[in-house]
Amino acid sequence: xxxxxxxxxxxxxxxVAGAAAxxxxxxxxxxxxxxxxxTPAQKDALRAKLREFKAMPPAEQARIRANLQRWxxxxxxxxxRIRANLxxxxxxxxxxxxxxxERVRELRKLDPExxxxxxxRIRQYLKENPERREQLLENMRRWREMSxxxxxxxxxxxxxxxxx
Length: 164
Fold this sequence. Notes:
This protein is 86% helix and 0% strand. By secondary structure, it is an all-alpha fold. The longest helix has 22 residues, at 2-23.
């Protein structure tokens, strides 16, 4: 039980205080050191997250622990890429984030074989059509530069095309 609590505490500390700990010149190395350097408000928030974690079903706790273990095993470059993606997601307007989450939920409803097939088909298509890959990257860049109003206009035009 104590080991689980420490693992959960480590998970939450890493998520809640990770950025603050990295910002310090002498970053603490252990979860206990990070906890000691937190403000009382941060400690309270962490304790609340721990209570929330303990209230989860065991299967959900196991899923979170497995995700944390996978995260720890990622190379630093991959972790930074994921953090950058998260920062990009957080910059999106709430409506776009919600739409993206809904699309991800739809993809998750596919069975693993269908998802794998879809990924493979996309990779194959982009490999066979390098110019399309470059166009996709350029479109993504242009999309990021658009205002929310411009994005909405593009979405409406795409919806209209699909209806025809």
